[in-house]
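pls design
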């Protein structure tokens, strides 16, 4: 898929909405108390006249919040931006794959999986314990509250599959013909028992019932186990992105 036709920067930005969002010359500054890079990074969709100055302004914005400046570098990022950030000492973090698959007429379901329209306390506990609970509190707001604001920022389905040794969860966002699959998490004692695959099947069925024909999901290149699960479900790589992360700059007093 050519960069200019790739829909995934937009889809991901919509499906994982940052509570704070400022647009600046085609770039979007997203912030959510530092909870997840996806919701606390620059989404650079436009090509500024002065690339260096645009980066300076982004750095100043995040410094005013006491957050590190992070850029999401996807297929629609301006030419030369990745190199400019590397020259400034930004680290390359979390190379990530976008994987897609057609949603089949039937996945044979995810037996025992419940899909609701809001994440209950059990769902939040599982996801937070597996994939979310590494973020500090900021500005007096608990990090999990920031996460809940992100997760519930758009209509979505929240799947929970209880297991004998632990639970599995997932989240799906209907976006027209696309279904975004997020927050796939299985508690460690319950892994390798098919719970993740069952949750994925349930979410795909749920999305098909709401008109979606294709699904996409995001997985880091390093997560071989998750990639294997998604490949078995028929997903293939359709795109890539990564983050560039600067050192934290704190707001100056006065």
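designed seq:
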């Amino acid at each position: 898929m050519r960069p200019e036709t790739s829909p995934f920067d937009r889809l991901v930005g919509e499906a994982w909405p940052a509570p704070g969002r400022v647009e600046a010359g085609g770039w979007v500054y997203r912030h959510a108390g530092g909870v997840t890079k996806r919701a606390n990074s620059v989404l650079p969709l436009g090509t500024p006249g002065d690339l260096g100055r645009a980066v300076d302004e982004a750095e100043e914005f995040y410094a005013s919040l006491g957050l590190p400046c992070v850029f999401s570098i996807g297929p629609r990022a301006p030419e030369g931006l990745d190199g400019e950030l590397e020259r400034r000492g930004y680290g390359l973090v979390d190379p990530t794959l976008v994987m897609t698959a057609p949603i089949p007429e039937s996945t044979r379901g995810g037996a025992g999986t419940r899909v609701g329209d809001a994440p209950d306390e059990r769902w939040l506990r599982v996801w937070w314990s597996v994939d979310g609970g590494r973020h500090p509190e900021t500005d007096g707001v608990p990090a999990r509250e920031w996460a809940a604001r992100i997760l519930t920022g758009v209509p979505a389905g929240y799947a929970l599959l209880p297991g004998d040794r632990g639970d599995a969860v997932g989240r799906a966002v209907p976006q027209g013909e696309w279904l975004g699959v997020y927050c796939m998490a299985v508690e460690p004692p319950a892994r390798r028992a098919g719970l993740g695959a069952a949750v994925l099947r349930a979410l795909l069925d749920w999305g098909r019932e709401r008109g979606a024909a294709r699904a996409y999901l995001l997985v880091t290149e390093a997560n071989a186990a998750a990639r294997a699960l998604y490949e078995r479900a028929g997903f293939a790589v359709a795109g890539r992105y990564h983050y560039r992360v600067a050192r934290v700059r704190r707001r100056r007093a006065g």
